[in-house]
Design goal:
There is one protein chain. By secondary structure, the protein is α/β, with parallel strands linked by helices. The chain folds into 2 domains: 6-32 and 291-395, Alpha-Beta Complex (Aspartate Aminotransferase, domain 1), CATH 3.90.1150; 37-289, Aspartate Aminotransferase, domain 2, CATH 3.40.640. α2 (35-51) packs across α3 and α4 crosses α11. The protein has a 7-stranded mixed sheet, sandwiched between helices. A 4-stranded antiparallel sheet has the order 11-12-15-14. It has 15 helices and 15 strands. The relative contact order is 0.17.
C-alpha cells in the first residue's frame, strides 16, 4: 500500500526540480536534492563570498548546530552522540580506528559487508594481527543471527561489524538482535547504515549499536561530502578516541598532555565544508518532517513493484535475497553488458547504477553473477516512471 497520495507525491516532485528532467532510480548512489537544500547551500556560499568564511560560520552557528539535532532526531538519540564526517567510509574508519585492537583480537562480520569495510578489516589484519571471522548466511540470504551469536560466544570478538543494507542487494540484515547480543556480552557493535539511513526507520536504542555510520547523499537527499557517525555513551565513557585528533576534537592542556572532548565531536576535525553541512541539516530536517515510517513504507512499495515486474521478464534474473527487502532492486540480464545497459538507460533519461565482483566478492560469487544492475527508487518516484523503465528493459 502506498504511503502518500498522488497530491503529496506531486508536491515532493514540485520541490525536486530534477524530477522534471530525468527518471532518477539511483537514489542508493546519490538522490536528487530538494530545492530548499540547494537554496540553503547557495545562501551560505553567498554569505561566505560577501562576508568571509569564519564570519559566516559564526553568524550561522544555529543553522550548523541544527545538523546535530536533526541527526539525533533521525536516530532517536542526543546531539552529543553525533559527529559530522565527510562521508560514510570516513565515519566508519574513524570508528574502527578507536578500537584498541591487539594481535589475535577478532572482528566478527558478515559475508555481505561492504567492500571498503572488508578492505579495512584486511588492513587491520596486516597491521595489528587481528583475525576476521564471518558468520554464515541464512538460506534465504543475509547473516544468520543464531550462527553469529554462537560465534560471539566461541571467539569473544573485540568488535562485531554489520552492514545493515548491502550496496549490492535489496537485503536488510538483522541488526537489533545482534546489537542486544553484543550489549549483553560487552562487545562493541559497529553498524554500517550507509544505505539504510533515509529509507528505513533507525533507532539506535533499539538497534543496540555503539557506532552507526552513514552518508546524507543517498536516501537522505543531502549534498555529497557530508555524513555522520553516531557514538554511544559506552564508547564516550570508555574514553575511546580516533587515531588522530586536532584542536577541535581535543584540548592541549599541558606541554605534554591533551584531553579529548567529552562528546562525539571528538571524532570530528575543526575544518568542515560548512555550506554543505548547512544544506545537509536542511535535508535531514526535510526527511524528519515527512516521517521515516512513511518513507520506508513508500520505498518498499515501489521496490516490491519493481521486483515483481522484473521477475516476469524471461532474460532477467532478480538477485535480491532476504526475508525483508529494502529499496535496492538488483538484477542481471542475459546477453547484456552492464556498462552498455546503464548507458542505454541513461540515453532514455533513466538513471541507474551497476556493481561488479569488486563490490562484494563473497555475495556475487554465491549468486554466480559477474555484475548486477541496481534500481533504487525513492518516495518521489511514480509508478509511471517505473513502468517506463520496465518497458524499456523488456524491449532489450
Amino acid at each position: 500500500m502506498q504511503a502518500f497520495t498522488s497530491e503529496q507525491i506531486s508536491q515532493f516532485r514540485k520541490e525536486t526540480p530534477g524530477t522534471d528532467q530525468i527518471i532518477h532510480l539511483n537514489n542508493a548512489g546519490a538522490a536528487l536534492m530538494p530545492e530548499l537544500v540547494k537554496a540553503s547551500i547557495d545562501q551560505f556560499l553567498t554569505a561566505e563570498y560577501l562576508a568571509g568564511g569564519y564570519e559566516t560560520a559564526a553568524d550561522q552557528r544555529a543553522g550548523l548546530d541544527a545538523f546535530y539535532s536533526a541527526v539525533a532526531k533521525l536516530l532517536n538519540t542526543a546531539s552529543s552522540n553525533i559527529a559530522f564526517l565527510g562521508n560514510a567510509t570516513d565515519a566508519y574508519n574513524k570508528a574502527l580506528s578507536c578500537i584498541p585492537f591487539e594481535k589475535g583480537d577478532v572482528i566478527l562480520t558478515s559475508l555481505n559487508d561492504y567492500s571498503s569495510n572488508q578492505i579495512a578489516f584486511l588492513q587491520l589484519k596486516k597491521l595489528r594481527g587481528v583475525k576476521i571471522v564471518f558468520s554464515q548466511d541464512l538460506p534465504t540470504g543475509g547473516l544468520d543471527p543464531v550462527d553469529m551469536i554462537q560465534k560471539m560466544e566461541f571467539y569473544q570478538p573485540k568488535l562485531v561489524a554489520v552492514t545493515h543494507v548491502p550496496t549490492n542487494s535489496g537485503l536488510i540484515q538483522e541488526a537489533a538482535q545482534i546489537g542486544r547480543a553484543c550489549q549483553d556480552r560487552g562487545i562493541y557493535f559497529l553498524l554500517d547504515a550507509c544505505q539504510s539511513a533515509g529509507q528505513l526507520v533507525l533507532d539506535v536504542k533499539a538497534l543496540g549499536c555503539d557506532f552507526l555510520s552513514a552518508t546524507t547523499r543517498k536516501f537522505l537527499r543531502g549534498p555529497r561530502g557530508t555524513g555522520f557517525l553516531y557514538v554511544s555513551n559506552r564508547v564516550l565513557n570508555a574514553k575511546l578516541s580516533p587515531l588522530f585528533l586536532d584542536l577541535h576534537s581535543a584540548a592541549w592542556n599541558e606541554d605534554d598532555q591533551y584531553t579529548p572532548r567529552e562528546d562525539a565531536k571528538r571524532f570530528e576535525l575543526w575544518e568542515k565544508p560548512y555550506a554543505l553541512m548547512f544544506g545537509a541539516a536542511k535535508a535531514i530536517e526535510y526527511a524528519n518532517n515527512i516521517g521515516l515510517d512513511r518513507i520506508e513504507q513508500q520505498v518498499k512499495y515501489l521496490s516490491d513493484y519493481l521486483r515483481a515486474s522484473l521477475s516476469s521478464l524471461p532474460k532477467v534474473r532478480v538477485l535480491d535475497q532476504g526475508i525483508e527487502k529494502a529499496g535496492l532492486v538488483t538484477f542481471t540480464m542475459a546477453g547484456q553488458d552492464p556498462v552498455q545497459l546503464q548507458q542505454q538507460l541513461r540515453k532514455q533519461g533513466i538513471n541507474t547504477s551497476h556493481t561488479t565482483l569488486a563490490y562484494n566478492r563473497y555475495d556475487m560469487k554465491a549468486k554466480q553473477a559477474d555484475w548486477l544492475l541496481r534500481l533504487s527508487p525513492h518516495y518521489y518516484n511514480t509508478l509511471a516512471e517505473l513502468d517506463r523503465t520496465l518497458e524499456f528493459i523488456a524491449q532489450l
